[in-house]
Design a protein that fits this description.
Order of helices and strands: EEEEHEEEHHHEEHHEHEHHEEHH
Number of strands: 13
Number of domains: 2
Number of helices: 11
Radius of gyration: 22 Å
CATH architecture of the largest domain: 3-Layer(aba) Sandwich
Shape: globular
Distance between the termini: 34 Å
Largest sheet: 7 strands, mixed
Bound molecules: uracil
Length: 321
């Protein structure tokens, strides 16, 4: 007989000097583990992980919105085989202060190699390189976005919104979607593709089996152009180098250019009407050209075309996955 158990926890880290330190807890049996515990009735894994972290460390955790990894293992308890699944989130702690509960003997903030040595579970240790790389990308994207958000102060005659709408998604996404520029809804929420175009894009992704939470979504120009006007050539030229740096950090295998502006800025070619559905390989990345969701809102037939284009990509991603 097998029983199933579900737990949730997190990689809690902080920066100290130039290093990244991970929080590990010493259990009563002397083994080291991450903060984690059972998912109680009525909780989802995120709620359970936050509760466990608060109980075990006193930290009010804020998770990376997109990072989540699952580990699975088996053990025996009084002759019963237990299949355990644990979902781990990622949390940057603001302070070094930790208040452990009676459940643990001690806590340690360990650098990467010490954490790898001390953690008992192999499945956790196996995740560590991925977590380390993810944190590096978070830091790097944070630096680029901070630079990007200062463009309005640095540029003469700035007439876009002054609020950066940064890209969002998994920082190790295989697939990146790039639009033109945020609209008014995006400017209000500071998130890309959350208005009507975003809803249409969500529907295309859903219908073609692509999970929005596993892709990275952004725009060429990451400031709202008032009245939704087309960004000028100069504005695109200002923003493009920062977009390219973001692409270098995410290193996606596939990029979708949504509409003429993105296709022109990234691939140096426009005319989506003629070129949509083409997958172009450049510098090791496969680029799919397709319509901008706004064009599919305006003309219904473009929605069907977008679906077909994305299906082609989805099949290609499936092939290589
Ligand atoms: N249109 C875009 O190009 N980007 C958004 O984020 C929203 C609408």
């Amino acid at each position: 007989m097998t029983d199933f158990e579900y737990s949730a926890g997190a990689f809690v880290y902080r920066h100290y000097g130039g290093a990244v330190l991970f929080l590990i807890l010493k259990k009563q049996n002397g083994e080291y583990d991450l903060p984690k515990g059972h998912i109680e009735k009525g909780e989802d894994s995120e709620v359970a992980a936050k509760r466990e972290i608060l109980e075990e460390t006193g930290i009010e955790a804020q998770f990376d919105r997109f990072f989540s990894e699952i580990t699975r293992y088996f053990f025996f308890n009084k002759g019963t085989r237990i299949a355990k699944q644990v979902r781990f989130f990622l949390c940057e702690a603001e302070t070094a202060e930790v208040k452990i509960s009676k459940e643990h003997l001690a806590y340690e903030w360990c650098d990467y190699s010490a954490a790898v040595k001390k953690l008992k579970f192999k499945d956790l240790v196996a995740l560590m390189p991925k977590v380390k790389e993810y944190i590096r990308r978070r830091d790097e994207i944070g630096r680029i976005n901070s630079e990007y958000s200062k463009l309005p102060q640095k540029s003469k005659g700035w007439s876009l919104s002054r609020r950066l709408v940064p890209g969002e998604g998994r920082l190790d996404a295989k697939l990146m979607l790039i639009g033109q520029a945020p609209g008014a809804n995006e400017d209000a929420q500071l998130r890309p593709f959350v208005g009507r175009s975003g809803l249409l894009l969500d529907s295309v992704l859903k219908k073609t089996g692509i999970n929005r939470n596993s892709v990275y979504i952004t725009n060429v120009v990451q400031f709202f152009p008032p009245k939704n006007r087309l960004p000028s050539k100069e504005e695109v030229a200002h923003c493009k180098p920062l977009l390219f740096r973001q692409i270098e950090v995410i290193r996606p295998k596939y990029i979708v250019t949504l509409g003429n502006l993105a296709t022109g800025a990234i691939l140096g070619m426009g005319q989506v009407e003629r070129n949509h559905g083409r997958i172009i390989r450049k510098d090791g990345v496969d680029y799919l050209i397709t319509f901008h969701p706004a064009a599919a809102l305006r003309f219904k037939e473009n929605y069907g075309i977008m679906l077909k284009d994305f299906e082609k990509l989805s099949e290609k991603i499936g092939e290589k996955a």
